[in-house]
Amino acid sequence: MKIGIIAASGKAGTMIMKEAISRGHEVTAIVRNAAKITDSQVTVLERDILEISYADVKEFDILVDAFNAPHGQEELHQTTLAHLTKILAGHKTPRLIVVGGAGSLYVDPAKTIRVMDTPDFPDAFLPTASNMGTAFDALKANNEITWTYLSPSAMFLPDGERTGSYTVGLDNLLANAAGASEISYADYAIALLDEAEAGKHINQRFTVGSK
């Protein structure tokens, strides 16, 4: 497939890019600074996320949004996703796959309490979680594009092991046999590419965790 990855030079984006390349996909890295992409197997498009147009992405089968807002500008999670949904509106392709957050996952079967609503949720992470949650709510209400939203587990581990396996859930936080809610960036990237190829969660959020 032809896959465009926004913020391909970031931690999650880099791992997703490497996984896509290893599977033989045609990858375009969409980054603000082209110099940060040194892999010769990748086409580079230097573009700020808010300046991306449909013409930039229309040839892709999959568009991965791996953007992570900087500290103090967490509202960009809302404005950037709104921009992407606007330019994709009315088009069947590319399918948008969003690297989401865990804060909007539920911790109870009735789906009334989100991770970010729990008493011990760190205050430092609340601006990111709440803005990502609001952006996700807007995405769920959008019926003009084809999308998938992939939430990691509570602990998203940049240097975690690549085990090659993971468990899948939908809207509730996962925990492994040891009681830990975690997923490595490497295993998350595997799950995202599996979804890109299989398309099992169209217009749906799902989550992945370690076994």
From TrEMBL:
Domain NAD(P)-binding: 8-195
Signal peptide range in chain numbering: none
Pfam families (UniProt xref): NAD_binding_10
Gene from which this protein is expressed: thrS
Biological source species: Carnobacterium maltaromaticum LMA28
Alphabetized InterPro entries for the sequence: NAD(P)-bd_dom (IPR016040), NAD(P)-bd_dom_sf (IPR036291), Polyketide_Oxido-like (IPR051606)
Lineage of origin: Bacteria, Bacillati, Bacillota, Bacilli, Lactobacillales
Keywords in alphabetical order: Ligase
Protein name, as recorded: NAD(P)-binding domain-containing protein
Gene3D superfamilies hit by this protein: NAD(P)-binding Rossmann-like Domain (3.40.50.720)
GO molecular function, one term: oxidoreductase activity, acting on the CH-NH group of donors, NAD or NADP as acceptor
